[in-house]
Amino acid sequence: MTMATRSVCQVFRRRFASAAASLRPLPAEVRSQRNAVFSREQARQRALYPRIEKIEVSMHGPGLDGTLLIMNRGMSTPLSCARHLTDHHVKNSALALVDGELWPLHQPLTSSCSLTLLTFKDGDPTLVNQAYWRSCAALLGQVIETAFKDEYSVELLSIPEVPVTSGAFCCDVLLDPQLDSWTPSEESLRSLTRGAQQLIHQDRAWEPLEVAPSVALEVFSHSRCKQEEVEQKASQNPKGTVTLYRCGDHVLLSGGPLVARTGLCSQYEVTALHNLGQGSWGVHRRAQGVSLPLQLQAHHTVWRKLRQRAEKLVDVPRSEEGTPAPPTSQEAPL
What we know:
Elements lengths: L1 H22 L3 H20 L7 E7 L7 E5 L5 H6 L3 H6 L2 E4 L2 E3 L9 E6 L7 H22 L6 E5 L10 E7 L10 H17 L4 E5 L1 H7 L4 H13 L5 E6 L2 E5 L10 E14 L4 E11 L6 H11 L24
Helix pairs in contact: 5-6
């Protein structure tokens, strides 16, 4: 009797999942809607500077002290300033400090300021390293969101803020209920790695956009958990805003600055997809990986040790976390 009841429940669950899948928009439609809202708000913000007004940018850094650039208010970015210097500055800069504030390379400058370009080889690369780790996790989320067949829903939960010393960057995700029992194979992880390497090869920019919560809520109108995250981040920000980033056709919510472009990543590997058990939205998973930037390479023996370390579950404090049940294998849906 118990087995029969379980079989009936499984049938109803599959039918319910199938019905839900037929009602939700296709992933491509969701990406298109998010892009449209992002582009509209980006255009609105750029229109706030209808006239070209000049600002003075005082450069700081090795060999740059005393350099003064005349740039365009609301249009020129730290990357624009780097292009007035040398090819080395363009290729190696990952972030900037604007009047001491951490600033994305693609974010327009709005007033005269002092500017320092940051690289991975600075005397103290802590800020750049943390932004790089966050960026690698954002890249991982982007790959996972598009890796599965259209009949499977994928929802990105959050990018946990973990230090580089944790050994792995991570991204929490919620997969379709049909995949609750799926265990990713080594080939599945290699497939995700190949997807990340394609984005790295494309050298796509991470475009920042600071927006009001209402705009971010419209961007993520199809994601209940992202809407909750928007409200949380806005409440924690003194300005009451949140920051979105766009990479290709992927729009994400970030808790901190990202580096300039995907091409700054070099060695990159997806190492694990851990089952965290039942959470507030369903069965939560933690995708993990390890990477080194273009300017820092590791010998294959060192890389192998880094990879092995990155396979271990990164412990991130969570307000709600259920006890995971041992999953059974299922056909790979990638």
